[in-house]
Amino acid sequence: MQRTAYRVLNDWTNMVVPLIARRSSKSRASLWSTRNYSVVPPPRDRTEKEMLDRILRVDHAGEYGANRIYAGQMAVLGRSRTGALIQEMWDQEKKHLAKFNEILAENRVRPTALLPLWNVAGYLLGASTAMLGKEAAMACTVAVEESISEHYNSQIRTLMEKDPDRYTELLKVIKEFRDDEMEHHDVGLEHDAESVPGYWLLKNAIQLGCKVAIFASERV
Known about the structure:
The chain has 220 residues and is mainly α. The protein has 7 helices and no strands. It is elongated and about 50 Å long. The relative contact order is 0.13.
């Protein structure tokens, strides 16, 4: 009887222990394969950290400025027929800004020191173009969203050239927001942006300001 008990115990050990070991191994593999970050990977060195900080800082500044522009437009046109359309685009920009606020906090990246300036400048740009009418407001939207989309595209190319697998989550965010900005750009064109007198002059002036803002926000 003792031999039988020993044989049963030995068979149980030979069957169960390897199974537990395999499950433990799978659990460890699963644990190691899980990302410990949501969007941005931990920088490998100082050079990568500086690059990622610049990207996050300027993207946050761009979304912040866009929010202030739409706030200015809504202050003037909020009760007009165009108000609902502007509000819809603004709501998307609010989501973009909230996401970058989250990413900056998670990665301990400081926002640009120029936020107070973009706060005032963005609002004044939105309000002043809206005062010229719906078409001028839409022209402002086209100019700004085109500039932001082009900058997002530049970042996408940079990250794809460096390591697309490493920056998968960050690329997803940037591509999604780029697509939203292009949608806003197209909405502006569909609502008579090009019909405003001096459209090309207005557009080029706004985009020059955007380029200056992008350059400064990356570095300050």
